[in-house]
Write a structure and sequence with these properties.
Elements (H helix, E strand, L loop, with lengths): L2 E4 L2 E6 L5 H14 L6 E4 L2 E4 L3 E6 L6 E2 L2 E2 L10 H11 L5 E7 L6 E4 L12 E7 L2 E7 L6 E6 L3 E5 L3 H4 E5 L9 E7 L5
Antiparallel strand pairs: 1-2, 2-13, 3-4, 5-8, 6-7, 8-15, 9-14, 10-13, 10-15, 11-12, 11-14
The structure holds 2-oxoglutaric acid and fe (ii) ion.
The site of fe (ii) ion has 4 residues, from loops.
């Protein structure tokens, strides 16, 4: 299994992750059944629409604030449970929440951030499953912006960000002018009691 070096961390990368027909079916299910929404974010006191659609899914009773947004959790659908278990087995974590993002075209994106909300605990493991069009995912060291890593995330790939990555590195999904198919990304997370 290939790994990406993101010193001092190693990021396992699984591609293909699912059987090809399973991945295609999952993409179709997610497009059809997830209540996608273009949420708003408040930045410096001004409200903006985020440049993508998203849906936060969590087990009952969990609350989450994500990058200045308070997300209303959607119910965890039964058909997503086997996938969460499969991803959790590989990542060595018991995931109880997923942030689903839908990038309609190359002008949808996600800016620099870490997945470091307090609800995730001090050193979360995050597993990122990509479906649909290939997009470039970038890392940049939090202190030394000259240290970067770019990874193309194709359809049916799983990238694991082990414990510690979030406190040393930011990541982003930049816009692209290249023609790209729609993409869905699921980041599996474990919310701990605050
Ligand atoms: O779409 C991606 O690959 C990244 C998503 C991400 O960073 C997040 O949901 O926090
Ligand atoms: Fe993230």
């Amino acid at each position: 299994m290939p790994v990406y070096e993101l010193p001092p961390f190693q990021l396992p990368f699984h591609h293909p992750f699912l059987a090809p027909e399973e991945a295609d079916e999952l993409l179709a299910l997610l497009l059809e059944r997830i209540p996608w929404k273009q949420d708003r974010i408040t930045l410096f006191g001004r409200e903006h629409l985020i440049p993508r659609e998203q849906c936060w899914i969590a087990e009952d009773g969990l609350n989450y604030r994500y990058s200045g947004q308070t997300l209303e959790p959607a119910q965890w659908p039964d058909w997503l449970r086997p996938l969460a278990r499969q991803v959790g087995d590989i990542a060595g974590e018991h995931f109880n929440s997923v942030l689903a993002n839908r990038y309609r075209d190359g002008s949808d994106s996600m800016g620099w951030h870490s997945d470091d909300e307090p609800e995730l605990g001090p050193s979360p493991v995050i597993a990122s499953l990509s479906l649909g069009g290939t997009r470039r995912f970038r890392f940049r060291h939090r202190e030394d912006h000259g240290r970067t890593l770019s990874i193309d995330l194709p359809h049916n790939s799983l990238l694991v960000m082990p414990a510690g990555v979030q406190s040393h590195w930011h990541h982003a999904l930049p816009k692209t002018r290249k023609p790209v198919s729609p993409r869905i990304n699921l980041t599996f997370r474990r919310l701990v009691d605050a």
